[in-house]
Design goal:
- It comes from Gouania willdenowi (Blunt-snouted clingfish).
- The protein is of the alpha/beta class and 425 residues long.
- A six-stranded mixed β-sheet has the order 2-3-1-4-5-6, sandwiched between helices. A three-stranded antiparallel β-sheet has the order 7-8-9, with no helix packed on it.
- Strand 4, helix 4 and strand 5 form a beta-alpha-beta unit.
- Helix 7 crosses helix 8.
- The model has no long low-confidence stretch (mean pLDDT 90).
- The structure holds guanosine-5'-triphosphate and magnesium ion.
Length: 425
Protein backbone atom coordinates (compact mmCIF):
# COMPACT_ATOMS: atom_id res chain seq x y z
CA UNK A 1 0.00 0.00 0.00
CA UNK A 2 1.44 3.38 -0.97
CA UNK A 3 0.63 6.32 1.21
CA UNK A 4 0.75 9.77 -0.18
CA UNK A 5 2.75 11.26 2.63
CA UNK A 6 2.31 14.99 2.85
CA UNK A 7 4.54 16.52 5.45
CA UNK A 8 3.76 19.81 7.06
CA UNK A 9 6.48 22.21 8.10
CA UNK A 10 6.05 23.39 11.67
CA UNK A 11 7.94 26.07 13.50
CA UNK A 12 9.16 25.29 16.98
CA UNK A 13 8.12 27.62 19.75
CA UNK A 14 11.59 27.49 21.29
CA UNK A 15 14.84 25.49 21.51
CA UNK A 16 14.18 21.81 22.26
CA UNK A 17 17.67 20.38 21.83
CA UNK A 18 17.73 17.89 18.91
CA UNK A 19 20.12 20.18 17.06
CA UNK A 20 22.78 18.51 19.19
CA UNK A 21 22.28 15.24 17.31
CA UNK A 22 25.38 15.71 15.08
CA UNK A 23 27.47 16.40 18.22
CA UNK A 24 26.03 13.30 19.87
CA UNK A 25 27.01 11.29 16.81
CA UNK A 26 30.51 12.70 16.82
CA UNK A 27 31.10 12.03 20.49
CA UNK A 28 29.69 8.49 20.14
CA UNK A 29 31.92 7.75 17.17
CA UNK A 30 34.96 9.19 18.92
CA UNK A 31 34.27 7.09 21.99
CA UNK A 32 33.84 4.00 19.81
CA UNK A 33 37.03 4.61 17.81
CA UNK A 34 37.60 4.01 14.11
CA UNK A 35 38.91 1.23 11.91
CA UNK A 36 40.91 1.84 8.78
CA UNK A 37 42.50 -0.82 6.63
CA UNK A 38 45.09 -0.20 3.97
CA UNK A 39 46.25 -2.75 1.43
CA UNK A 40 49.64 -2.12 -0.20
CA UNK A 41 50.10 -4.01 -3.45
CA UNK A 42 53.47 -3.78 -5.14
CA UNK A 43 56.61 -5.65 -6.13
CA UNK A 44 59.08 -6.77 -3.49
CA UNK A 45 61.26 -3.86 -2.36
CA UNK A 46 59.25 -1.18 -4.16
CA UNK A 47 58.95 0.90 -0.98
CA UNK A 48 55.64 -0.20 0.59
CA UNK A 49 56.84 -0.36 4.19
CA UNK A 50 58.80 2.88 3.91
CA UNK A 51 55.71 4.61 2.53
CA UNK A 52 53.53 3.39 5.39
CA UNK A 53 56.10 4.54 7.93
CA UNK A 54 56.33 7.94 6.21
CA UNK A 55 52.54 8.33 5.95
CA UNK A 56 51.89 7.65 9.63
CA UNK A 57 55.19 9.14 10.81
CA UNK A 58 56.02 6.09 12.85
CA UNK A 59 57.93 2.83 12.55
CA UNK A 60 55.69 -0.15 11.89
CA UNK A 61 57.00 -3.69 12.01
CA UNK A 62 59.07 -4.17 8.93
CA UNK A 63 60.16 -7.54 7.68
CA UNK A 64 61.90 -7.61 4.33
CA UNK A 65 60.51 -10.12 1.86
CA UNK A 66 62.74 -12.41 -0.17
CA UNK A 67 62.53 -12.61 -3.94
CA UNK A 68 62.08 -16.39 -3.83
CA UNK A 69 58.51 -16.79 -2.58
CA UNK A 70 56.67 -19.60 -4.40
CA UNK A 71 53.48 -17.56 -4.50
CA UNK A 72 52.01 -14.24 -3.47
CA UNK A 73 50.98 -13.93 0.16
CA UNK A 74 49.41 -11.21 2.25
CA UNK A 75 50.80 -10.04 5.55
CA UNK A 76 48.35 -8.11 7.74
CA UNK A 77 49.48 -6.20 10.86
CA UNK A 78 47.10 -4.33 13.13
CA UNK A 79 48.09 -1.33 15.25
CA UNK A 80 46.26 0.94 17.69
CA UNK A 81 47.07 4.57 16.92
CA UNK A 82 45.95 7.70 18.72
CA UNK A 83 45.92 11.27 17.47
CA UNK A 84 44.45 13.98 19.73
CA UNK A 85 41.55 12.09 21.30
CA UNK A 86 40.82 9.89 18.27
CA UNK A 87 41.65 6.19 18.40
CA UNK A 88 42.33 4.45 15.14
CA UNK A 89 42.64 0.71 14.75
CA UNK A 90 44.81 0.57 11.65
CA UNK A 91 45.48 -2.60 9.69
CA UNK A 92 48.23 -2.49 7.11
CA UNK A 93 48.20 -5.43 4.72
CA UNK A 94 51.18 -5.84 2.43
CA UNK A 95 51.76 -8.22 -0.43
CA UNK A 96 54.74 -10.54 -0.04
CA UNK A 97 56.46 -11.88 -3.14
CA UNK A 98 54.27 -9.98 -5.59
CA UNK A 99 55.84 -9.98 -9.07
CA UNK A 100 58.58 -12.49 -8.19
CA UNK A 101 57.18 -15.64 -9.79
CA UNK A 102 57.99 -16.64 -13.36
CA UNK A 103 54.34 -17.40 -14.00
CA UNK A 104 52.44 -14.36 -12.76
CA UNK A 105 49.08 -15.42 -14.16
CA UNK A 106 47.44 -16.00 -10.78
CA UNK A 107 49.28 -13.33 -8.77
CA UNK A 108 46.09 -11.33 -8.29
CA UNK A 109 44.19 -14.30 -6.83
CA UNK A 110 45.49 -14.31 -3.24
CA UNK A 111 44.79 -10.56 -3.06
CA UNK A 112 41.26 -11.01 -4.36
CA UNK A 113 40.67 -13.91 -1.97
CA UNK A 114 41.91 -11.87 0.98
CA UNK A 115 39.52 -9.01 0.16
CA UNK A 116 36.60 -11.43 -0.31
CA UNK A 117 37.40 -13.22 2.95
CA UNK A 118 37.11 -9.95 4.86
CA UNK A 119 33.74 -9.25 3.18
CA UNK A 120 32.63 -12.78 3.99
CA UNK A 121 33.53 -12.37 7.66
CA UNK A 122 31.53 -9.16 7.86
CA UNK A 123 28.55 -10.76 6.10
CA UNK A 124 28.65 -13.71 8.50
CA UNK A 125 28.58 -11.31 11.43
CA UNK A 126 25.69 -9.41 9.85
CA UNK A 127 23.69 -12.62 9.35
CA UNK A 128 24.24 -13.91 12.88
CA UNK A 129 21.21 -13.99 15.15
CA UNK A 130 23.26 -12.47 17.95
CA UNK A 131 25.38 -10.00 16.05
CA UNK A 132 27.67 -7.42 17.51
CA UNK A 133 28.60 -5.12 14.66
CA UNK A 134 29.02 -2.32 17.18
CA UNK A 135 32.32 -3.69 18.49
CA UNK A 136 33.14 -5.91 15.51
CA UNK A 137 36.69 -5.51 14.23
CA UNK A 138 36.00 -4.58 10.66
CA UNK A 139 38.86 -5.86 8.52
CA UNK A 140 37.40 -4.95 5.13
CA UNK A 141 39.97 -3.17 2.98
CA UNK A 142 39.16 0.53 2.62
CA UNK A 143 41.94 1.46 0.25
CA UNK A 144 44.38 -0.32 -1.99
CA UNK A 145 47.54 1.66 -2.66
CA UNK A 146 48.86 0.20 -5.87
CA UNK A 147 52.62 0.77 -6.15
CA UNK A 148 53.77 1.22 -9.75
CA UNK A 149 57.48 0.89 -10.58
CA UNK A 150 58.89 4.23 -11.79
CA UNK A 151 61.40 2.82 -14.26
CA UNK A 152 59.24 1.81 -17.17
CA UNK A 153 57.48 3.36 -20.13
CA UNK A 154 54.05 2.29 -19.00
CA UNK A 155 52.18 -0.17 -16.82
CA UNK A 156 53.23 -3.80 -16.80
CA UNK A 157 50.60 -6.33 -17.80
CA UNK A 158 50.70 -7.68 -14.23
CA UNK A 159 49.69 -4.20 -12.95
CA UNK A 160 46.87 -3.89 -15.45
CA UNK A 161 45.49 -7.37 -14.82
CA UNK A 162 45.68 -6.99 -11.04
CA UNK A 163 44.02 -3.57 -10.96
CA UNK A 164 41.33 -4.74 -13.38
CA UNK A 165 40.55 -7.73 -11.17
CA UNK A 166 40.46 -5.64 -8.00
CA UNK A 167 38.62 -2.54 -9.14
CA UNK A 168 35.11 -3.77 -8.33
CA UNK A 169 36.24 -4.99 -4.91
CA UNK A 170 38.23 -2.15 -3.46
CA UNK A 171 39.04 1.55 -3.84
CA UNK A 172 42.31 1.75 -5.77
CA UNK A 173 44.72 4.67 -5.67
CA UNK A 174 47.67 4.10 -8.01
CA UNK A 175 50.96 5.65 -6.94
CA UNK A 176 54.31 5.82 -8.71
CA UNK A 177 56.81 4.64 -6.11
CA UNK A 178 60.40 5.86 -5.71
CA UNK A 179 59.62 8.77 -8.02
CA UNK A 180 62.92 10.42 -7.03
CA UNK A 181 64.60 7.96 -9.40
CA UNK A 182 63.03 9.48 -12.53
CA UNK A 183 63.36 13.01 -13.85
CA UNK A 184 60.46 15.44 -14.05
CA UNK A 185 59.70 15.23 -17.79
CA UNK A 186 59.86 11.42 -17.79
CA UNK A 187 57.61 11.33 -14.76
CA UNK A 188 55.02 13.59 -16.42
CA UNK A 189 55.05 11.36 -19.51
CA UNK A 190 54.74 8.23 -17.37
CA UNK A 191 51.76 9.67 -15.48
CA UNK A 192 49.91 10.50 -18.71
CA UNK A 193 50.71 7.08 -20.16
CA UNK A 194 49.52 5.25 -17.04
CA UNK A 195 46.23 7.16 -16.91
CA UNK A 196 45.53 6.58 -20.60
CA UNK A 197 46.26 2.86 -20.21
CA UNK A 198 43.96 2.60 -17.22
CA UNK A 199 41.17 4.37 -19.11
CA UNK A 200 41.60 2.36 -22.31
CA UNK A 201 41.52 -0.90 -20.33
CA UNK A 202 38.46 0.16 -18.37
CA UNK A 203 40.17 0.05 -14.96
CA UNK A 204 38.11 2.01 -12.43
CA UNK A 205 40.37 3.73 -9.95
CA UNK A 206 39.07 5.62 -6.92
CA UNK A 207 37.97 9.17 -7.72
CA UNK A 208 38.04 11.70 -4.89
CA UNK A 209 34.39 12.71 -4.38
CA UNK A 210 33.28 16.11 -5.60
CA UNK A 211 29.68 16.15 -4.34
CA UNK A 212 30.48 17.76 -1.01
CA UNK A 213 31.06 21.47 -1.60
CA UNK A 214 33.57 21.73 1.23
CA UNK A 215 36.02 19.41 -0.54
CA UNK A 216 34.82 19.55 -4.15
CA UNK A 217 37.49 21.97 -5.31
CA UNK A 218 40.50 20.28 -3.75
CA UNK A 219 39.24 16.82 -4.69
CA UNK A 220 38.57 17.63 -8.33
CA UNK A 221 41.99 19.25 -8.61
CA UNK A 222 43.63 16.20 -6.99
CA UNK A 223 41.83 13.84 -9.35
CA UNK A 224 43.90 15.40 -12.15
CA UNK A 225 47.17 14.62 -10.34
CA UNK A 226 46.66 10.87 -10.26
CA UNK A 227 48.70 8.71 -10.16
CA UNK A 228 50.62 10.40 -7.35
CA UNK A 229 54.37 10.24 -7.76
CA UNK A 230 55.66 9.67 -4.24
CA UNK A 231 58.89 9.38 -2.30
CA UNK A 232 59.17 7.69 1.06
CA UNK A 233 61.78 8.14 3.75
CA UNK A 234 62.07 7.73 7.48
CA UNK A 235 65.31 9.71 7.72
CA UNK A 236 65.29 13.18 9.26
CA UNK A 237 67.63 15.51 7.40
CA UNK A 238 68.57 19.04 8.37
CA UNK A 239 67.50 21.50 5.66
CA UNK A 240 68.23 25.08 6.69
CA UNK A 241 67.47 24.98 10.36
CA UNK A 242 64.60 22.53 10.09
CA UNK A 243 64.57 18.75 10.35
CA UNK A 244 62.60 17.25 7.48
CA UNK A 245 61.98 13.78 6.10
CA UNK A 246 64.19 13.44 3.05
CA UNK A 247 66.40 11.16 1.01
CA UNK A 248 69.99 12.29 0.78
CA UNK A 249 72.03 12.04 -2.40
CA UNK A 250 75.56 13.25 -3.20
CA UNK A 251 74.04 16.05 -5.27
CA UNK A 252 71.38 17.10 -2.78
CA UNK A 253 68.26 15.92 -1.00
CA UNK A 254 64.73 14.94 -2.01
CA UNK A 255 62.31 16.25 0.57
CA UNK A 256 59.30 14.05 1.07
CA UNK A 257 56.97 16.84 2.14
CA UNK A 258 58.12 19.34 -0.46
CA UNK A 259 55.40 19.52 -3.10
CA UNK A 260 57.83 20.57 -5.79
CA UNK A 261 59.80 17.37 -5.13
CA UNK A 262 56.96 14.83 -5.09
CA UNK A 263 53.23 14.23 -4.48
CA UNK A 264 53.59 12.71 -1.02
CA UNK A 265 51.73 15.55 0.69
CA UNK A 266 48.90 15.26 -1.83
CA UNK A 267 48.60 11.55 -1.09
CA UNK A 268 48.58 12.10 2.69
CA UNK A 269 46.04 14.93 2.40
CA UNK A 270 43.71 12.94 0.21
CA UNK A 271 44.04 9.67 2.04
CA UNK A 272 44.06 10.70 5.68
CA UNK A 273 42.86 14.27 6.05
CA UNK A 274 40.12 14.70 3.44
CA UNK A 275 38.72 11.41 2.21
CA UNK A 276 39.26 8.78 4.89
CA UNK A 277 35.56 8.68 5.76
CA UNK A 278 34.54 8.58 2.10
CA UNK A 279 36.85 5.62 1.56
CA UNK A 280 35.22 3.82 4.49
CA UNK A 281 31.77 4.68 3.19
CA UNK A 282 32.51 3.64 -0.41
CA UNK A 283 33.83 0.35 0.87
CA UNK A 284 30.62 -0.33 2.75
CA UNK A 285 28.09 1.15 0.35
CA UNK A 286 29.63 0.15 -2.97
CA UNK A 287 32.08 -2.70 -2.75
CA UNK A 288 30.65 -4.60 0.21
CA UNK A 289 27.11 -4.04 -1.06
CA UNK A 290 28.03 -5.59 -4.41
CA UNK A 291 29.69 -8.57 -2.69
CA UNK A 292 26.70 -9.01 -0.37
CA UNK A 293 24.18 -8.83 -3.22
CA UNK A 294 26.03 -11.40 -5.34
CA UNK A 295 26.53 -13.69 -2.36
CA UNK A 296 22.89 -13.55 -1.22
CA UNK A 297 21.65 -14.09 -4.78
CA UNK A 298 24.01 -17.04 -5.06
CA UNK A 299 22.44 -18.41 -1.88
CA UNK A 300 18.98 -18.06 -3.45
CA UNK A 301 17.77 -14.91 -1.73
CA UNK A 302 15.77 -12.47 -3.84
CA UNK A 303 13.96 -9.22 -3.12
CA UNK A 304 11.23 -9.97 -5.68
CA UNK A 305 9.64 -13.14 -7.04
CA UNK A 306 9.09 -14.00 -10.73
CA UNK A 307 5.87 -11.91 -10.68
CA UNK A 308 7.85 -8.89 -9.40
CA UNK A 309 6.08 -9.17 -6.05
CA UNK A 310 8.28 -8.56 -3.06
CA UNK A 311 9.64 -11.75 -1.57
CA UNK A 312 9.71 -12.27 2.18
CA UNK A 313 12.60 -14.00 3.91
CA UNK A 314 10.18 -16.78 4.95
CA UNK A 315 9.12 -17.36 1.32
CA UNK A 316 12.75 -17.39 0.20
CA UNK A 317 13.54 -19.92 2.89
CA UNK A 318 10.59 -22.14 1.93
CA UNK A 319 11.44 -21.92 -1.78
CA UNK A 320 15.09 -22.72 -1.08
CA UNK A 321 14.08 -25.63 1.17
CA UNK A 322 11.83 -27.11 -1.51
CA UNK A 323 14.54 -26.65 -4.12
CA UNK A 324 16.99 -28.33 -1.78
CA UNK A 325 14.67 -31.31 -1.12
CA UNK A 326 14.05 -31.84 -4.85
CA UNK A 327 17.78 -31.64 -5.45
CA UNK A 328 18.38 -34.11 -2.61
CA UNK A 329 15.87 -36.58 -4.07
CA UNK A 330 17.43 -36.22 -7.49
CA UNK A 331 20.88 -36.87 -6.05
CA UNK A 332 19.58 -39.89 -4.08
CA UNK A 333 17.98 -41.37 -7.22
CA UNK A 334 21.17 -40.69 -9.16
CA UNK A 335 23.26 -42.45 -6.51
CA UNK A 336 20.88 -45.41 -6.36
CA UNK A 337 21.04 -45.77 -10.14
CA UNK A 338 24.80 -45.49 -10.00
CA UNK A 339 24.93 -48.22 -7.35
CA UNK A 340 22.71 -50.59 -9.39
CA UNK A 341 24.83 -49.99 -12.50
CA UNK A 342 27.99 -50.62 -10.53
CA UNK A 343 26.62 -53.90 -9.14
CA UNK A 344 25.60 -54.98 -12.65
CA UNK A 345 28.99 -54.09 -14.02
CA UNK A 346 30.75 -56.01 -11.22
CA UNK A 347 28.46 -59.01 -11.76
CA UNK A 348 29.22 -59.06 -15.48
CA UNK A 349 32.94 -58.76 -14.75
CA UNK A 350 32.75 -61.68 -12.28
CA UNK A 351 30.88 -63.83 -14.80
CA UNK A 352 33.46 -63.08 -17.44
CA UNK A 353 36.24 -64.00 -15.00
CA UNK A 354 34.43 -67.26 -14.07
CA UNK A 355 34.11 -68.16 -17.75
CA UNK A 356 37.79 -67.49 -18.30
CA UNK A 357 38.70 -69.64 -15.29
CA UNK A 358 36.48 -72.45 -16.50
CA UNK A 359 38.06 -72.38 -19.96
CA UNK A 360 41.50 -72.39 -18.39
CA UNK A 361 40.53 -75.36 -16.22
CA UNK A 362 39.26 -77.29 -19.25
CA UNK A 363 42.43 -76.50 -21.14
CA UNK A 364 44.59 -77.69 -18.25
CA UNK A 365 42.48 -80.84 -17.96
CA UNK A 366 42.99 -81.56 -21.64
CA UNK A 367 46.71 -80.99 -21.34
CA UNK A 368 46.87 -83.27 -18.29
CA UNK A 369 44.99 -86.08 -20.12
CA UNK A 370 47.27 -85.75 -23.10
CA UNK A 371 50.35 -85.95 -20.90
CA UNK A 372 48.90 -88.96 -19.10
CA UNK A 373 48.26 -90.67 -22.41
CA UNK A 374 51.82 -89.97 -23.56
CA UNK A 375 53.22 -91.35 -20.35
CA UNK A 376 51.09 -94.50 -20.67
CA UNK A 377 52.42 -94.94 -24.18
CA UNK A 378 56.00 -94.55 -22.99
CA UNK A 379 55.42 -97.00 -20.13
CA UNK A 380 54.05 -99.59 -22.53
CA UNK A 381 57.02 -99.15 -24.85
CA UNK A 382 59.41 -99.51 -21.93
CA UNK A 383 57.63 -102.66 -20.71
CA UNK A 384 57.86 -104.13 -24.20
CA UNK A 385 61.56 -103.30 -24.27
CA UNK A 386 62.00 -104.92 -20.85
CA UNK A 387 60.17 -108.07 -22.02
CA UNK A 388 62.22 -108.29 -25.21
CA UNK A 389 65.36 -107.82 -23.17
CA UNK A 390 64.32 -110.59 -20.74
CA UNK A 391 63.59 -112.92 -23.64
CA UNK A 392 66.96 -112.16 -25.19
CA UNK A 393 68.60 -112.71 -21.82
CA UNK A 394 66.94 -116.13 -21.36
CA UNK A 395 67.95 -117.20 -24.89
CA UNK A 396 71.52 -116.08 -24.28
CA UNK A 397 71.65 -117.96 -20.99
CA UNK A 398 70.32 -121.11 -22.65
CA UNK A 399 72.90 -120.86 -25.40
CA UNK A 400 75.64 -120.37 -22.88
CA UNK A 401 74.47 -123.40 -20.88
CA UNK A 402 74.50 -125.62 -23.95
CA UNK A 403 77.95 -124.40 -24.93
CA UNK A 404 79.31 -125.18 -21.48
CA UNK A 405 77.80 -128.70 -21.54
CA UNK A 406 79.40 -129.47 -24.96
CA UNK A 407 82.83 -128.47 -23.61
CA UNK A 408 82.69 -130.67 -20.50
CA UNK A 409 81.61 -133.72 -22.61
CA UNK A 410 84.61 -133.31 -24.89
CA UNK A 411 86.95 -132.94 -21.90
CA UNK A 412 85.76 -136.27 -20.37
CA UNK A 413 86.21 -138.09 -23.77
CA UNK A 414 89.81 -136.82 -23.98
CA UNK A 415 90.67 -137.86 -20.43
CA UNK A 416 89.33 -141.42 -21.13
CA UNK A 417 91.52 -141.55 -24.32
CA UNK A 418 94.54 -140.41 -22.30
CA UNK A 419 93.95 -143.17 -19.67
CA UNK A 420 93.76 -145.89 -22.36
CA UNK A 421 97.05 -144.80 -23.92
CA UNK A 422 98.84 -144.91 -20.55
CA UNK A 423 97.57 -148.47 -19.94
CA UNK A 424 98.88 -149.65 -23.40
CA UNK A 425 102.35 -148.35 -22.60
P1 LIG B 1 59.20 -5.76 0.85
O1 LIG B 1 58.31 -5.65 2.01
O2 LIG B 1 60.47 -6.51 1.13
O3 LIG B 1 58.51 -6.27 -0.38
O4 LIG B 1 59.74 -4.31 0.44
P2 LIG B 1 58.95 -2.95 0.52
O5 LIG B 1 58.11 -2.80 -0.69
O6 LIG B 1 58.29 -2.83 1.82
O7 LIG B 1 60.15 -1.91 0.38
P3 LIG B 1 60.88 -1.15 1.55
O8 LIG B 1 60.05 -0.06 2.10
O9 LIG B 1 61.45 -2.13 2.49
O10 LIG B 1 62.04 -0.45 0.71
C1 LIG B 1 62.99 -1.17 -0.02
C2 LIG B 1 64.16 -0.27 -0.34
O11 LIG B 1 63.74 0.84 -1.14
C3 LIG B 1 64.81 0.35 0.89
O12 LIG B 1 66.19 0.37 0.70
C4 LIG B 1 64.26 1.76 0.95
O13 LIG B 1 65.14 2.68 1.54
C5 LIG B 1 64.12 2.08 -0.53
N1 LIG B 1 63.07 3.05 -0.76
C6 LIG B 1 61.88 3.12 -0.17
N2 LIG B 1 61.18 4.17 -0.62
C7 LIG B 1 61.97 4.78 -1.54
C8 LIG B 1 61.82 5.95 -2.36
O14 LIG B 1 60.80 6.60 -2.36
N3 LIG B 1 62.86 6.26 -3.18
C9 LIG B 1 64.00 5.54 -3.24
N4 LIG B 1 64.94 5.93 -4.07
N5 LIG B 1 64.18 4.45 -2.49
C10 LIG B 1 63.18 4.08 -1.63
MG1 LIG C 1 57.84 -4.27 3.35
Amino acid sequence: MTVNEEKRNLDLGGHVGFDSLPDQLVSKSVAQGFCFNILCVGETGIGKSTMMNTLFNTMFENEEASHYERDVQLRPETYELRESNVNLKLTVVQTVGFGDQINKEDSFKPILDYIDTQFEKYLEEELKIKRSLFNYHDTRIHICLYFIAPNGHSLKSLDLVTMKKLDSKVNIIPIIAKSDTVNRSELDKLKIKIMSELVSNGVQIYQFPTEDEAVAEINSSMNTHLPFAVVGSVDDVKVGNKLVKARMYPWGSVQVENESHCDFVKLREMLLRVNMEDLREQTHARHYELYRRCKLEEMGFKDTGPDSQSFSLQETYEAKRKEFLVELQRKEEEMRQMFVNKVKETEAELKEKEKELHERFEQLKRMHQEEKKNLEEKRRELEEEINAFSRRKVAAETLMGQALQGCSHQRSKQSKRNALCQKKH
